[in-house]
Amino acid sequence: MEAKKGYKAVAKNLPMSPTKIRPIANNLRKRPVVEAVAILETLPNKGAGFLKKVIESATANALFQNSKLDEEMLYIKELLVDGGPIQKRIWPRSRGKADRLLKRSSHISVVVDEIGNTGE
């Protein structure tokens, strides 16, 4: 019998480097959803807004798929921040030279599950 994975939400091609989002995400893993959203609302970072939106989407998916769940009983089971496609641009420099400008993007995936659910 396969263990239940939880309720998932994914945001792709977000216009921000994953190295800027990961430190925020590292503080949210294994926390209750309500506590994580409260933390994200107080942070001024652009990445915090992206994370909050994906966590709220995963929570809404969980509540939609299982009406018996309570938002207070959900926690962040899995939170991944991966690199997305990189846009390469030219950055003009002095004396006719050029550097390469890499515009990085991110993929965020969140899995929420019920507190006390061991996947049986």
TrEMBL record:
CDD domains: Ribosomal_L22. One of its GO terms (molecular function) is structural constituent of ribosome. It comes from the Bacteria. One of its GO terms (cellular component) is cytosolic large ribosomal subunit. Keywords: Ribonucleoprotein, Ribosomal protein, RNA-binding, rRNA-binding. One of its GO terms (biological process) is translation. It holds the Pfam family Ribosomal_L22. Signal peptide: none annotated. InterPro entries: Ribosomal_uL22 (IPR001063), Ribosomal_uL22_bac/chlpt-type (IPR005727), Ribosomal_uL22_bac/org-type (IPR047867), Ribosomal_uL22_CS (IPR018260), Ribosomal_uL22_sf (IPR036394). Belongs to the universal ribosomal protein uL22 family. This protein binds specifically to 23S rRNA; its binding is stimulated by other ribosomal proteins, e.g., L4, L17, and L20. It is important during the early stages of 50S assembly. It makes multiple contacts with different domains of the 23S rRNA in the assembled 50S subunit and ribosome. PANTHER family: CHLOROPLAST 50S RIBOSOMAL PROTEIN L22-RELATED, LARGE RIBOSOMAL SUBUNIT PROTEIN UL22M. Part of the 50S ribosomal subunit. This is Large ribosomal subunit protein uL22. The lineage of its organism: Bacteria, Pseudomonadati, Spirochaetota, Spirochaetia, Spirochaetales. The gene is rplV.
